[in-house]
């Protein structure tokens, strides 16, 4: 599997990371090195082996479906880069 | 008492209880040592006011005669732990200025037990790295030195390792996703333990790869590891993977008696290119355990070779998902936007400015392996291989093995910048002996047992059965006693 500049551009877009056009070829080549390393996994016979979902046998614990938290608007907004009138502010999303 | 910063947790606890010294005195000695150690780059946010207030409160508790073991013990806290009102930025630009409104479960438990926070410790950005060089603060430096080069303390818990080895604090918290406690411990001649997955709550610790991350103690010896682990672990309803199991008395398990225990030596860990010094360290350690009455058996963990490639699918996949939260909206950095920039540009510019190159690389690799068409070929295949890696360990333990002895790292500490031109895979190989343990969710401990020809510390790793940290610590304690590693770095900073 070889990653070209176009694929690198698409992955950067999916990851929402701006990558300059001139940096794409180097990025693609780094991906290829890492994916080449990962390709070794194809040597392993995984027929009939379940993908691991939990490393310990325990089930995820459940709790009662009740409100246990809330009324912390100021604390929630405290670290926001732009908070106004009790909301997170972002650039215009809809026209 | 002469040099208070050199005390162990156990030594400080006993001295404080006897009234020979106060927490305020030890804390002040550590703060002074930290002030003189900026060249190590270990402490990146210092909290002397908090430390002195906590020390005073601890002294009052000790005087009242009802203080837990960690009471009054000055610690360094890895920057990955959220600490209320104190910068907690995972060594990333994207969390610049972030001051959590809450306390992580682990730091909360330590503070409830009376521990003192001296400040936040350097690390690789989002715990992604093996040399502390991906940090936004610049690298932490190893207090060990053999020539004029600055050496890495390892990573990602590099600041923790450097601070403990240089006696800036009595102990430190670390986290370990692929070896980030054990590799830096080995590089700096200290002891570091990664607990069984689920033993320590992950709540309030900045997430990297949630199915692999565990926090643990980094200390001057095995006894301190036992004492500090005790205070860190226990069930937490806020982490759904936290185990609801009783916590044994780890320190009480340190009898040093390992007669009749079976220690496995995995043949797949003898790798091409392993330096002769590491081979010798390993066979010396094996002999020490044999002399202590343990039975040594050769074992096979056939999928070892595939652990690193599986890890470099699973960890980036989970990271790409976990790090999606850094969007410039709710906390941390937001890029300056140009006229006409919309929300997508805000995300893309914020993440390009906020994440360093290694984090960007892993987020994008993770995005790729999870993307439509590749999910089965990469991600699901890696998870199947992970099942096989765990099965290897299950089989060994089912055959009667009590613990497994391996090298902790493939080399001693290397120089800062020496890997800069190497391809990323070369750096990833640092975790070759440790990463299997995270994939299998097992407890592992690195213990310093020798030095290389240049005089740099080297460590061995012991891997235990799930939830059997007490037994693992006891075997590590015996190994520590037999190895008698007492060397300290000469102060140059």
From TrEMBL, chain A:
Heterotrimer of A, B and C subunits. Belongs to the GatC family. Allows the formation of correctly charged Asn-tRNA(Asn) or Gln-tRNA(Gln) through the transamidation of misacylated Asp-tRNA(Asn) or Glu-tRNA(Gln) in organisms which lack either or both of asparaginyl-tRNA or glutaminyl-tRNA synthetases. The reaction takes place in the presence of glutamine and ATP through an activated phospho-Asp-tRNA(Asn) or phospho-Glu-tRNA(Gln). GO terms for molecular function: asparaginyl-tRNA synthase (glutamine-hydrolyzing) activity; ATP binding; glutaminyl-tRNA synthase (glutamine-hydrolyzing) activity; transferase activity. InterPro entries: Asp/Glu-ADT_sf_sub_c, GatC. Keywords: ATP-binding, Ligase, Nucleotide-binding, Protein biosynthesis, Transferase. It comes from the Bacteria. Its EC number is 6.3.5.-. GO terms for biological process: glutaminyl-tRNAGln biosynthesis via transamidation; regulation of translational fidelity; translation. The keyword Protein biosynthesis applies. Pfam families: GatC (PF02686). It catalyses: L-glutamyl-tRNA(Gln) + L-glutamine + ATP + H2O = L-glutaminyl-tRNA(Gln) + L-glutamate + ADP + phosphate + H(+); L-aspartyl-tRNA(Asn) + L-glutamine + ATP + H2O = L-asparaginyl-tRNA(Asn) + L-glutamate + ADP + phosphate + 2 H(+). This is Aspartyl/glutamyl-tRNA(Asn/Gln) amidotransferase subunit C. Transmembrane segments: none annotated.
Automatic annotation (TrEMBL), chain B:
Residues 25-473 form the Amidase domain. It catalyses: L-glutamyl-tRNA(Gln) + L-glutamine + ATP + H2O = L-glutaminyl-tRNA(Gln) + L-glutamate + ADP + phosphate + H(+). It comes from the Bacteria. The keyword Zinc does not apply. The active site is at residues 78, 156, 180. Belongs to the amidase family. GatA subfamily. Heterotrimer of A, B and C subunits. NCBIfam families: gatA. This is Glutamyl-tRNA(Gln) amidotransferase subunit A. It comes from Yoonia vestfoldensis SKA53.
């Amino acid at each position: 599997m070889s990653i070209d500049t176009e694929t690198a551009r698409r992955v950067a877009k999916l990851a929402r990371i701006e990558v300059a056009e001139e940096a794409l070829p180097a990025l693609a080549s780094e991906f290829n090195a890492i994916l080449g390393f990962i390709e070794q996994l194809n040597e392993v016979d995984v027929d009939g082996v379940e993908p691991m979902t939990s490393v310990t046998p325990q089930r995820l614990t459940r709790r009662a479906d009740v409100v246990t938290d809330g009324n912390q608007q100021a604390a929630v907004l405290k670290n926001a880069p732009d908070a106004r009138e009790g909301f997170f502010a972002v650039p215009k999303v809809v026209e | 008492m002469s040099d208070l910063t050199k005390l162990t947790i156990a030594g400080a606890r006993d001295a404080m209880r006897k009234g020979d010294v106060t927490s305020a005195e030890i804390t002040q000695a550590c703060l002074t040592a930290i002030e003189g150690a900026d060249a190590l780059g270990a402490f990146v946010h210092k909290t002397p006011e908090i430390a002195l207030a906590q020390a005073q409160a601890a002294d009052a508790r000790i005087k009242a005669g009802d203080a837990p073991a960690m009471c009054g013990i000055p610690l360094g806290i890895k920057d990955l732990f959220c600490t209320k009102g104190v910068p907690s930025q995972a060594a990333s630009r994207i969390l610049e200025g972030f001051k959590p409104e809450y306390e992580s479960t682990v730091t909360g438990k330590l503070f409830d037990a009376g521990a003192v926070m001296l400040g936040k410790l350097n690390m690789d950005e989002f715990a992604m790295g093996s040399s502390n060089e991906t940090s936004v603060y610049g690298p932490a430096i190893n207090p060990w030195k053999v020539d004029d080069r600055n050496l890495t303390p390892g990573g990602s818990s590099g600041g923790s390792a450097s601070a403990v080895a240089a006696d800036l604090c009595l102990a430190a918290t670390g986290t370990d996703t692929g070896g980030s406690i054990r590799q830096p411990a080995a590089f700096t001649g200290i002891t570091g333990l990664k607990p069984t997955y689920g033993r320590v709550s992950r709540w309030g610790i900045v997430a990297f790869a949630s199915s692999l991350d565990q926090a643990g103690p980094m200390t001057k010896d095995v006894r301190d590891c036992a004492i500090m682990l005790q205070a860190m672990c226990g069930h937490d309803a806020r982490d759904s993977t936290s185990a609801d199991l009783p916590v044994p008395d780890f320190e009480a398990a340190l009898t040093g008696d390992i007669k009749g225990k079976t220690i496995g030596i995995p043949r797949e860990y003898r790798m091409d290119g392993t330096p002769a010094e590491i081979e010798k360290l390993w066979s010396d350690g094996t002999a020490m355990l044999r002399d202590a009455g343990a039975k040594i058996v050769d074992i096979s963990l056939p999928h070892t070779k595939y652990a690193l490639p599986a890890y470099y699918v699973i960890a980036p996949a989970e990271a790409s998902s976990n790090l999606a939260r850094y969007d410039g909206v709710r906390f941390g950095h937001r890029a300056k936007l140009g006229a006409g920039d919309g929300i997508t540009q805000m995300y893309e510019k914020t993440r390009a400015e906020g994440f360093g190159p290694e984090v960007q690389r892993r987020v994008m690799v993770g995005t790729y392996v999870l993307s439509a068409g590749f999910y089965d070929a990469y991600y699901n295949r890696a998870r199947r291989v992970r099942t096989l890696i765990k099965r290897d360990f299950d089989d060994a333990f089912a055959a009667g093995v009590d613990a497994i002895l391996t090298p902790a790292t493939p080399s001693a500490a290397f120089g800062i910048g020496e890997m800069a031109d190497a391809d990323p895979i070369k750096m990833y190989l640092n975790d070759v002996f440790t990463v299997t343990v995270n994939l299998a969710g097992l407890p592992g401990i690195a213990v310093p047992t020798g030095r290389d020809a240049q005089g740099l510390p080297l460590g061995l790793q012991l891997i235990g059965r799930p939830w059997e940290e007490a037994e693992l610590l006891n075997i590590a304690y015996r190994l520590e006693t037999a190895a008698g590693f007492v060397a300290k770095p000469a102060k140059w900073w």
